[in-house]
Amino acid sequence: MAEAHQAVGFQFTVRPDGVDLKLSQEVIKTIYLSGVTAWKKRAIQFKSLVKMFSGRRPLLYSFQASLPRLPVPSVDDTIHRYLESVHPLLNSDQYDQMERLANDFKDSKAAQLQRYLILKSWWGTNYVSDWWEEYIYLRGRSPIMVNSNFYIMDLLYITPTHRQAARAGNVVHAMLQYRRKLERGEHAPLRALGTVPMCSTQMERIFNTTRIPGIETDIVQHLTDRKHLVVYHKGRFFLLWLYTGGRHLLPSELETQFQRILNDTSEPQPGELKLAALTAGHRVPWAQSRIKYFGQGVNKVSLDAIESAAFFLTLDDEPQGYDPAKAKSLDSYAKSLLHGKCYDRWFDKSFTLISYPNGKVGVNAEHSWADAPIVGHMWEYVLATDCFHLGYTEEGHCKGDVNKGLPHPSRLQWQIPNECQEVIETSYLSAKLIADDVDFHGYLFHEFGKGLIKKCRCSPDAFIQLALQLAQFRDQGVFCLTYESSMTRMFRDGRTETVRSCTTEAVAFVRAMEDEGATKAQRLALFRKAAEKHQNMYRLAMTGSGIDRHLFCLYLVSKYLGVDSPFLKKVLSEPWRLSTSQTPQQQLNLVDINKFPKYVSAGGGFGPVADDGYGVSYIIVGENLITFHISSKFSSPDTNSCRFGQHICDAMLDIQALFKPENDKTTVEQLGNGKKHM
């Protein structure tokens, strides 16, 4: 997802000085510390593993110790696959130059760098993940709002209650239930395709986690057993205790507390209204302000309350959500979740829950600590628990008795000087420029879905990725480096890998689709070849044979050792003008969407990755719906998210038409009820 933006723009800030011996010591020290961190994680997880033997049902971490380490690919394989991936994007002279750079690297410097990675893979549990978190996320000094954070939407068609406080009450209670099961390791182990165990370590930091700004690098602070929540409403911050008498607050009790906040008419304190804009702007001013203005007194106490909270909740004052009667309702909803007003979400928290006055909800998630499927897992549990287990009264309130004896939520206190207020305003204005530049378009592709694609004996993901390549070419007239996020969680501490979707086979297929002289049979044959290639690349990425994380780590080692590599510099500076990601669904299978087809999520999305490119997230919902989330920048004269959405719709229908029998007289318009998307 959003890591593609950081993967191009990151700046390496470790600058060891001295002779080669000292440089080698620097990288060995870094590898050593990576291993120490990994062994500490193992010690913590061991407590959960021990529980496996006390019961019959496997627990969340039952298979963690049996997961293999992520292998380090051979340099020869990585360079071969890299050159293969850029071949369709370069002319002959450019390709020959890149081939020379690659071969020079392979023959001169690669072996030395590779040895350090192999050492790191032996000592640590994963040779990529800690460096990926640090250098792709935490060392980035640009704003994380839009550029890094992502969002997840509510149920698409259903709003179980239109009472804001009640919906927030049920959702927060469901989150507390999820957290309790997480702390006890009671969630079922995660498995790919329902059988292959996957790593669960990212789940440890869902709650009680905050990204803390620093001058050169941020850190991720994870605490345990946090018993409070911080709520933002109309410029005021409230602290709300989540426990009473040793138990969680009941949904009805939470509703009462949230309603008290909604009813509160007090005014924001000076500087309080836009305070959270500090988390939306550039990282260095935020880090400096945190030290200077929030290091003591009431400001420190209040900031500590936010950063140590279980999570952050915004009670928004503007209704959002998908409304088929409003053409741009999905667009507005997405932008609200992605950036809001730039000061009404705490973008540093692991996630901000956003509750709207019409009963809709959503999540904005910080990206450094985990990837989207982890937040999606929690969200699936919460929505299913909210609708099918907790429920509401006929009047739309939370079920259960009302307890008016609870102490009221308390206002956080601030003493923010004028100089700090100026920094807040500057951060707000810079964040607003970013937010206002987001050109977002979301639409629901109803014409067909996974069911029909599978009848075509094709992977749904490959089908959509090839449609995106066709749409990209029709939109821009050129092919571009394309990023598709794949997971590597079948390995211990695995996160993501890149699938480079613009292959030679995909280019040949797209050119055939645009060639009036190509026959339907030729186009279909090229499509199948390209789809097979894509599936194979996805399998390679998932099984540890991707190339981009390997190249990234080789580059890091080269910087530690002071080794100059024109090849690695070139590779790590290439822009991803099309960044794509599929949002997983039905990770828990708590809701039968065939029986309850209206209880489906619209998925989620992320901000534009390149200044002149597109970000596309999609979710394959059941058998007959695919939802697309498209982002770009208004400031680019070459992109238009709505136009690109139309190209995707057309491409999907044109590919589907290849599978129609020759004697089938059904028109494209009849297949898709016309080519106009929502």
Blueprint (SSEs and pairs):
Elements: H1 3-9, H2 20-50, H3 75-86, H4 92-108, H5 110-123, H6 129-138, E1 150-153, H7 164-183, E2 191-192, E3 196-197, E4 209-212, E5 219-222, E6 228-233, E7 236-241, E8 243-244, E9 247-248, H8 251-263, H9 283-293, H10 297-307, E10 312-315, H11 329-338, E11 351-355, E12 361-365, H12 372-390, E13 410-411, H13 418-436, E14 438-445, H14 450-455, H15 460-476, E15 482-487, E16 496-500, H16 504-514, H17 520-542, H18 548-561, H19 566-572, E17 578-582, E18 604-606, E19 614-621, E20 625-633, H20 641-657, H21 668-672
Parallel strand pairs: 6-10, 10-11, 15-17, 17-19
Antiparallel strand pairs: 1-12, 1-18, 2-3, 4-5, 6-7, 7-13, 8-9, 11-12, 14-20, 15-16, 19-20
Domain Carnitine O-palmitoyltransferase N-terminal: 1-47
GO molecular function, one term: carnitine O-palmitoyltransferase activity
Catalytic activity: (R)-carnitine + hexadecanoyl-CoA = O-hexadecanoyl-(R)-carnitine + CoA
Identify low-pLDDT runs.
9-22, 50-54, 667-676
Proportion of β residues?
5-15%
Order of strands, main sheet, comes to 13-7-6-10-11-12-1-18
Largest sheet: 8 strands, mixed
Overall pLDDT metric: 91
Globally, the shape reads: globular
Tally the helices.
Answer: 21
Helix content: 40-55%
Rg estimate, integer Å: 25 Å
Roughly how many Å apart are the termini?
23 Å
Report the strand count.
20
Which structural class best describes the helix and strand composition?
A: alpha+beta
Subcellular location: Mitochondrion outer membrane
Domain Choline/carnitine acyltransferase: 70-648
Family: Belongs to the carnitine/choline acetyltransferase family.
Organism: Gasterosteus aculeatus aculeatus
